[in-house]
Specification:
The complex is a heterodimer of chains A (219) and B (92). Chain A is mainly alpha-helical and 219 residues long. Chain A is built from 7 helices and no strands. Classes of the chains: A mainly alpha (219), B alpha+beta (92).
Chain lengths: 219, 92
């Protein structure tokens, strides 16, 4: 499997950013489940589940990158580096599967259909393409980007229907998430894109958090 | 002409009507005050009972409805629910 190139100076910062993404995605997930419990609205449950999957994906990625930056330290033994390497393969697979499941659940939510068989087929097809591909990391970023293009169009429609600041913030956030994932496609060859991808995702999650805080404050 | 009500708004309207005369309101009163067709009213009331927002009380004089704690919570947090669901595009 190919790996993204991480510039040395960025090692550690990536893990901190991913930890932030984990916390924000977790907050949205938990809040969405709370809204589901209050309203009984199925789509809130799906949004909550999708963000919980995404948060779990970032948590694993963050732990993985903390471990990687630890194993790069001068005083670290070869044995611990070997353990880190074998764990990192498992971690990358777990991150990819959890993130794709989250994004597929979000895309399914936007379709506004209630058919578990269709959801299972949709998810199985995408996971099969990902896991059977020769270059999993490229396919992971490419599939995520395709799904995020679809989701961004949905949120563009949502903004055009309502013309509210909150819907514009959420649409912009998903656009930044999309740009971030597109940058990650090129991070396999260039470290600069890896940094840019993280910064774009940082903007996206700050926007999502801003929207969440404004909703909570308005109550 | 008023804007078409969405599902969250209709639920809010029904629950508000039930709250107004909690435990004493009859189906015909809710139907009249919530401004729904017979079929829509039945569908909504079944859903609200199924999801635990209202309970049906069977009396000698007929059926009445009252709000559960979940129903009261929905009315309290309605604006927050609307803000959250509209910003994340969660309308049914």
């Amino acid at each position: 499997m190919n790996y993204a190139i991480v510039p040395n100076w960025f090692a550690g910062y990536n893990a901190i950013l991913e930890l932030m993404f984990f916390v924000i995605a977790l907050l949205v997930g938990v809040y969405s489940i709370r809204i589901y419990r209050l309203s009984g609205q199925r789509q809130s449950k799906l949004l909550g589940i999708s963000f919980l999957f995404i948060s779990a994906a970032y948590f694993i990625q963050s732990i993985l990158n903390f471990a990687a930056s630890y194993s790069m330290a001068d005083w670290c033994s070869m044995q611990s580096m070997a353990v880190t390497h074998s764990l990192s393969n498992f971690g990358i697979y777990a991150h990819m599967i959890l993130f794709i499941t989250g994004i597929v659940t979000l895309a399914y939510m936007t379709l506004k259909i209630n058919d578990l068989k269709a959801y299972a087929l949709f998810l199985a097809a995408i996971l099969a393409v990902l896991l059977l591909s020769s270059n999993k990391l490229y396919f992971f970023y490419a599939l995520s980007s395709i799904l995020l293009i679809y989701i961004s169009f949905y949120y563009l429609g949502n903004y055009l229907d309502s013309r509210k600041m909150s819907t514009l913030i959420v649409f912009t956030a998903f656009l930044f998430l999309l740009f971030g994932k597109i940058h990650f496609i090129f991070s396999i060859d260039h470290g600069t894109f890896y940094v840019a991808g993280h910064l774009l995702e940082f903007v996206a999650y700050v926007l999502i958090l801003t929207n969440l805080i404004s909703v909570i404050r308005r109550k | 002409m008023s804007k078409k009500r969405d599902k969250l708004q209709i639920i809010y309207d029904i629950l508000s009507v039930v709250k107004g005369r909690n435990g004493k309101i009859k189906p015909t009163n809710i139907l009249y005050k919530s401004n729904l067709s017979n079929q829509m009213f039945s569908e909504y009331m079944n859903e609200l009972m199924q999801k635990g927002f209202v309970v049906e009380n069977k009396l000698k004089s007929g059926k009445t409805y009252s709000l559960t704690q979940k129903g009261f919570d929905y009315l309290d947090k309605y604006q927050m629910i609307v803000d959250f669901t509209s910003s994340f595009g969660l309308s049914d």
